[in-house]
Amino acid sequence: MLIEDGPADARARLLLAHGAGAPMDSEFMGELARALAAGGMRVVRFEFPYMARARHGQKRGAPDRMPVLEQAFKDVLSGLGEPGAWLIGGKSMGGRVATHIADAQRVRGVVAYGYPFHPPKKPGQTRTAHLSDLRTPCLVLQGTRDPLGSRDEVAGYTLAPSIQCVWLEDGDHSFEPRKSSGRTFAQNLALAVEATLRFAAERFA
To answer: What is the pLDDT of residue 67?
Structure first.
């Protein structure tokens, strides 16, 4: 099952995966996909096996192991045609999986919305080893106070030159700012969408 938004003949295309705890039709995923589609991008959403099983009535367990997640992503991508015609990415875990397969699949680029640089409350267990030599152009949209990788934490990581970070002021892991910041979720989402469309325009020029 896929959810598709935006023009079917759009040149800029994004295969978008969900995060660990919410499905492809969550409020965040829906708002993001529709906003990107309004900017002229074709966005295709899918679900990893564990989430798809839950949708069909089975008890939802923990996310599948990384090799299963990677294979599921590759299978969906291959079903859409030439991988080189696509950007791939996702929310949190979905974006992480995309970074794992990007180089081998030779996609146009990767977009990660809230990259999980480390597990919750475990800053010492970083998920950055493969990011030091990632060759595929990668855009990371990250809240400045993301508990899975804040701006201060990410500044200390060794990331490949192919990776660019756009920081969403006072945003948490889902880009939500505190009321006291004077920012709104809508503002941060709009900034993330604008950055994505700009990144896509460069990749598909």
So the answer is: 98
Q: 143 has which bridge partners?
A: 168
Q: Report the half-sphere exposure of 182 (CA within 13 A, side-chain side).
A: 0
- Three-state SS for 130-157 is HHHCCCCCEEEEEECCCCCCCHHHHCCC
Instruction: Give the structural domain span for 110.
Output: 3-203
Q: Are 194 and 166 in contact (CB under 8 A)?
A: no
Question: How much is the average pLDDT of 99-104?
Answer: 98
Contact (Cβ atoms closer than 8 angstroms) between residue 123 and residue 137: no
Secondary structure of residue 84 in the 3-state scheme: helix
Torsion of CA 26, 29, 31, 37, to 10 degrees: -140
Stretch (H or E) spanning 71: helix 66-79
Domain containing 40 — which CATH number?
3.40.50.1820
Give the pLDDT of residue 62.
87
pLDDT at 54 over 80: yes
- Residue 188: pLDDT band (50, 70, 90) is very high
Region 23-33 average pLDDT: 97
Contact 171, 197 (CB under 8 A): no
Q: Count the domains in the chain.
A: 1
pLDDT value, residue 58:
73
Residues 46, 17 contacting (CB under 8 angstroms) = yes
Cα–Cα nearest to 204, from 37, 30, 34, 40: 40
